[in-house]
Task: structure prediction
Amino acid sequence: MLDVRSALVDAVRSALDALGARVDAVVEPSARPEFGDWSTPAPLAAARVLRRAPLQIAEDLRAQLANAPLELVREWTVTPPGYVNATLQDGVWARQVIAAALQLDPGVAIELPAGYSRAAGKTLVEHTATNPNKAAHIGHLRNACIGDTVGRVLRRTGHQVEVDNYIDDTGVQVADVVVGIRDLGLKPEEGEPFDQFCSRVYVEVSRRYEATPELQHRRAEVLHGIERGDPDVTSFVRDLTHRVVDAHLATMRRFDIEYDLLTWESDIITLGFWRQAFELLRDSGAIVLAEQGKHAGCWVMPPEGAEQDTDDDETKVLVKSDGVATYTAKDIAYQMWKFGLIGRDFHYRVWDASTPDSPVTTASHEHSDEVPPHFGHAQRVVNVIDARQAYPQQIVQRALRRLGHEREADSSIHLAYEVVALTPAAAGVLGVDVSAGRELYALSGRHGIEVRADDLLDRAVERIRDKARDAQTALLVAAGAVRYYLLRFSLTQIIAFDFDEALRVTGDTGVYLQYAYARASGILRKVPDDGGELVVPDSLQPVERAVLHRVDGYRRALAEAATGLAPSVLTTYAFALASSLSDFYEHTPAIVRETDPVVRRFRRALVAATRATLGDALRTLGMAAPNQI
Result:
């Protein structure tokens, strides 16, 4: 696919080499249209190297570029204080941009522009990891949307990708729900979805712990039963967590989020992954048994440079004094499996054979529908986990380094993102006391302060239903609206969630993008392709040039999103592309009424190229591209 900037960078690089100027061949959109389409400030940097005036260097650079004609460029010019500008040859570059866009094929990876490369081997992306004790809420959904889109962007740019979802079915939160159902006898209400019932149980058990602290001994008994493999406990937990995970998968399917593999923590324990990892860490001296102080009786990982427990916050407990492994301990074992370092593997089977595209799930023993092992053994691992988990992720990397796996430690990426919090308005809708006057209110599953993912989507569907042509379209547009809202913020931003903002249909929203795609589809229906040769008009309108530049920038935007593992780069690009199409639509006569066949054919092709590019971007973002809304 054409990338004009890359072609210009190559030309500028060659010209600078001829001048002996070893500086970056930077090429940027021109600040002023009258200067041209693209500019390079390279002469300004070269002045320090060549010890000459920037304007003189710019003239020499222009001469070099003019002597090595580039088909895309009509003219090279110079402007003070030392810029060289390229005005493109409209009849060449416009045709090439349109042709490249119309050749986009979802089954063929996007070719990366110059300066970008694919990561070698498999990239394993782990995301979602919602505890199987409650319904998925908007915080879990942000994680899933980020991870799913990162996987899509990597696949679209030709990376080999595996997407895993870690199921913590042996932790405290699951034990609390078991206590609520088995010991306290809590029952679902008529018609209550099971995952939402478990959310309610979790809140109620937390409340009773506060009122009756001694009740927490039942949690400990359940956890020990899980660790020992007690048949009654493990059977109950398995049934409960499988039902909740089924609900989670159904929720995520509504947002077009799917997984390659479901990895169960109980299988990591049963198959001895942690035991193997523990022995390797112990024998290497990476962990030590604390004999005194507040960590007495615990197996701990001392901080860097220390060989024994320092009894401070930099010492990480991996096995508590009661013999129970911590979350981080099991994360280390899991990370080692991801890289193929543990010397053990799971059994695998299809999660639900009756569901199309069902993920595979790990298992602790062989099944009749065993799936051949081809998971893990990654060259790079991307863990999508919120920023609050930075320290445990650092411990995972520290463990790999202490075992001598430097490359794997360097290839362990914590894709951290900030959390979703509630604005006072959103908190008030959920019945939270906002009298404290805070700017943000934290979500809390334990206290029942959350926006469930299914409920949010249902609200979005209701808001869009009257504007959509049918119920299915309303669902697709609503799901896209929610996904886009959760993706357009940078990962370092806390999302101040507000119902009105999330479900808005104008401005920088998913609905705006999908309406732009549908509008383009409508134009193409009204203006049939006459099969004639595409000829670029002698003079392009500014809005036409703007659309062409946006379409041409798609490959670079994808490459930047893939390299930075940053979905918001692609949302920003898609909004800019949709906006340029809107400007074109509003500032040119309707194509259907255009009488000049050359202009009519060109503008139809321009709309078709924009539609193809926007559709590709929407699908890479995990959003539907509806022809009609």
